[in-house]
């Protein structure tokens, strides 16, 4: 899975604590990412193809889904997890210098798109309980209502959609 840099490490007593994403803790970083890169709900945002860009993509998704679209924390949490997986695949497997992030919202649905210049298709692989990698598309397949890949003349867009309850 991409972007484990935010996971909590074991405390001094040697026991690991459960790390759970919080919609309020990241607000400051999310707003800074929005200022720096732009709003992916208004136009595609280009991010450098580096592992640390997964954190930026998560922050952008967080601020748009939770604050701009006023959707639930649960929806936001799932979208943040899944964008991290798509970004991880784009960074790890395409050899690109940059990738594009785009968010769309229509009544009852959100769509998250990650565009890269590779025409290589992602592959949903069966996962085993002890697998330490290769679970990204499995998670997308399990949590998203729909997902797919659109081939482009120069690359592809990998996307997922989730049903949402608009407030």
TrEMBL record:
<dbReference type="GO" id="GO:0004674">
    <property type="term" value="F:protein serine/threonine kinase activity"/>
</dbReference>
<keyword id="KW-0723">Serine/threonine-protein kinase</keyword>
<keyword id="KW-0808">Transferase</keyword>
<feature type="region of interest" description="Disordered">
    <location>
        <begin position="1"/>
        <end position="24"/>
    </location>
</feature>
<dbReference type="InterPro" id="IPR050267">
    <property type="entry name" value="Anti-sigma-factor_SerPK"/>
</dbReference>
<dbReference type="InterPro" id="IPR036890">
    <property type="entry name" value="HATPase_C_sf"/>
</dbReference>
<dbReference type="Pfam" id="PF13581">
    <property type="entry name" value="HATPase_c_2"/>
</dbReference>
<feature type="domain" description="Histidine kinase/HSP90-like ATPase">
    <location>
        <begin position="47"/>
        <end position="160"/>
    </location>
</feature>
<keyword id="KW-0418">Kinase</keyword>
<dbReference type="InterPro" id="IPR003594">
    <property type="entry name" value="HATPase_dom"/>
</dbReference>
<protein>
    <submittedName>
        <fullName>Anti-sigma regulatory factor (Ser/Thr protein kinase)</fullName>
    </submittedName>
</protein>
